């Protein structure tokens, strides 16, 4: 018998899940590495490639709208989890704060409005070296978070 939160990361089974990924094209060297790590971890935890929808948007501000569009899909079946992949590196202007805050708020709003777990792997870093240091682990972590939360919500339903 399953009790909520009793799953260990090594016990994650995503074989029955449908997962959507929204990847920003801005900072492509980082977002592509995030995606590769995420896809590898989804596969390692049983998510079938044909059950993954992977779409691209220009940048982090566009991620929430694409997540919302995926969350609207009900046929033939809804997504069990969504994943946001992006990278925002601080510059010299206030634009960093605007993009980081608004993209994060949008991701959370879509998750709550549609009652779908969204793993937010939009990196917000001070510089490129911080992004490079986090890209692989954050991609893997996003996959695990998406699977774990999808399984938890199924059990709580």
Structural description of this entry:
With 157 residues, the chain is α/β, with parallel strands linked by helices. The chain has a single domain, classed as Rossmann fold (3-Layer(aba) Sandwich). The chain contains 4 helices and 4 strands, in the order βαβαβαβα. Strands 2-1-3-4 form a 4-stranded parallel β-sheet, sandwiched between helices. Helix 1 runs parallel beside helix 4 and helix 2 runs parallel beside helix 3. The longest helix has 29 residues. The mean pLDDT is 93.
Descriptive key words:
alpha/beta, 4 helices, 48% helix, Rossmann fold, 157 residues, globular, four-stranded parallel beta sheet, 18% strand
Would you spell out the secondary-structure blueprint of this structure?
Blueprint: E1 19-24, H1 28-44, E2 52-57, H2 63-72, E3 81-89, H3 95-114, E4 118-125, H4 128-156
Parallel strand pairs: 1-2, 1-3, 3-4
């Amino acid at each position: 018998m399953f009790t909520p939160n009793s799953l260990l990361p090594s016990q994650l089974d995503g074989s029955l899940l449908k997962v959507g990924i929204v990847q920003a094209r801005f900072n492509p060297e980082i977002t592509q590495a995030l995606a590769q790590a995420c896809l590898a971890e989804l596969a390692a935890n049983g998510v079938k490639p044909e059950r993954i929808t992977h779409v691209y948007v220009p940048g982090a501000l566009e991620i929430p709208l694409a997540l919302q569009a995926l969350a609207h899909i009900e046929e033939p079946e809804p997504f069990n989890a969504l994943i946001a992949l992006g990278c925002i590196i601080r510059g010299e202007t206030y634009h960093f704060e605007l993009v980081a805050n608004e993209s994060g708020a949008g991701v959370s709003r879509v998750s709550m409005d549609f009652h779908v777990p969204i793993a937010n792997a939009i990196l917000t870093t001070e510089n490129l070296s911080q992004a490079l240091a986090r890209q692989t682990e954050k991609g893997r972590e996003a996959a695990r978070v998406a699977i774990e939360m999808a399984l938890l919500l199924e059990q709580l339903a």
